[in-house]
Amino acid sequence: MKIRVGVLYGGKTTEHEVSIITAVQAMGYLDPNKYEVIPMYLTKENEMYTGEPLKEMDVYKEPELLKRYCKNVICYSKDGVLVLQNKNGLLKKIIKEVDIVIPATHGYNMEDGNIQGLLETYGVPYTGSDIYGCTVGQDKVFQKQILQAEGVAVTKYVWFYDNEYYEDETKILADVKKLGLPVIVKPARQGSSIGIKIAKDEESLKDAINDAIKYDDKILVEEVVNNMTELNCSVLGSHSYMQTSSIEQVMGKDEILSFNDKYIGSGSKKGAAKKMSASKGMVSSDRVIPADIPQKLANEIAETSKKVFRVLGASGVVRIDYLYDKKAKKYYVNELNTIPGSLSFYLWTPLNKKYDELLDDMINIAIKRFKNKLKKTTTFESNILEGFDGTKGTKGMKNKLR
């Protein structure tokens, strides 16, 4: 009997389209001999649709096709499985049942533990990091604070909330200037380089902060690494066992690795060629795999990646991004991505791990975690309510309600 795998993606997030690319890629590589693949697409209004046409990119370009050929559904837990039920019509027919979910969501609201919390409540196994790992993975300030405490090198930074900036702009700007301009300004809980800018003077700093505030109420400002190249490493596993991928060197064309660098690729592409490149997700970036770095550095980054993976509570497949100062020969952890674009499958290809095999590993890890969790005690018997008269404390409230 095939395992019924739901691929959950889309949603109310600035990275909606990126999520679609990741999901369609994954659905195309899941082995049809092992799995029944069930799309679980969330629109930007968080309406869920399912149906075979969702496995093709074209349906997302025409909203009417989505409504005409796909089923609008709701989901709930029933007898240990996730049920997708027809939302419209008199007959609330069950369309599909799901045994395990692959979250292919990206960004704030979708990758930050919200989806994982929902699936935990449903009691359904899912791939990737759990609530805690995803929450830390989405918040770049949390990451830096935890990694600093564990002795992992991160760049110097300051952070603040938007209200603190509005209340005392002078203080915040003074704190930022202590890092030394230029600096990188980013929303603390966004991804795909959305809302990130380099500020080289006070005027551009203010502009960058105001732009970042459009996306988040928590802002991170970091020092710029000189002579910088970006190196990325994927990790697969759990807290008990993990392995690292090839290391990539990303060749961005902008000052910082931008959304265009990540998902559009070479700026020389035009028209249909650019659209085709975008549909490849992170694969469209200009990159060198394996990275052109000394073997000693590659070994150090691999070991650091395992440490970051464990310390931040990650699971499944993640990507850890590094900033490397070529002159100083020093690297810094930039961030952990708990659901990386394209699930970082291209980083495993040089190690002869095909994408379908990577997905198999992710599913097996998730099932093992789910079974282990079932062995843990989740309830606690006590007599705390014995003899407790709950009505005694309600007399005053009753009078207020009259």
CATH architecture of the largest domain: 2-Layer Sandwich
Overall number of domains: 3
| Mass-distribution shape | globular
Number of strands: 16
Fraction in beta strands: 15-25%
Pattern of helices and strands: EHEEHEEEEHHHEHHEEHEEEHHEHEEHH
How would you name the CATH homologous superfamily of the largest domain?
ATP-grasp fold, B domain
Structural class, by secondary structure, is alpha+beta
Largest sheet: 7 strands, mixed
Query: What's the arrangement of strands in the largest beta sheet?
Result: 6-5-4-3-2-1-7
CATH level 1 class label of the largest domain: Alpha Beta
* N-C termini distance: 60 Å
Care to describe what's here?
This protein is of the alpha+beta class. The protein has three domains: about 5-125, Rossmann fold (3-Layer(aba) Sandwich); about 135-155 and about 225-250 and about 285-375, D-amino Acid Aminotransferase, Chain A, domain 1, CATH 3.30.470.20; about 155-225, ATP-grasp fold, A domain (Dna Ligase, domain 1, 2-Layer Sandwich), CATH 3.30.1490. It is built from 13 helices and 16 strands. It has a seven-stranded mixed beta sheet, with helices on both faces. Strands 14-13-12-15-16 form a five-stranded antiparallel beta sheet. It has a four-stranded antiparallel beta sheet with strand order 8-11-9-10. It is globular and about 65 Å long. Residues about 265-280 have low confidence and may be disordered.
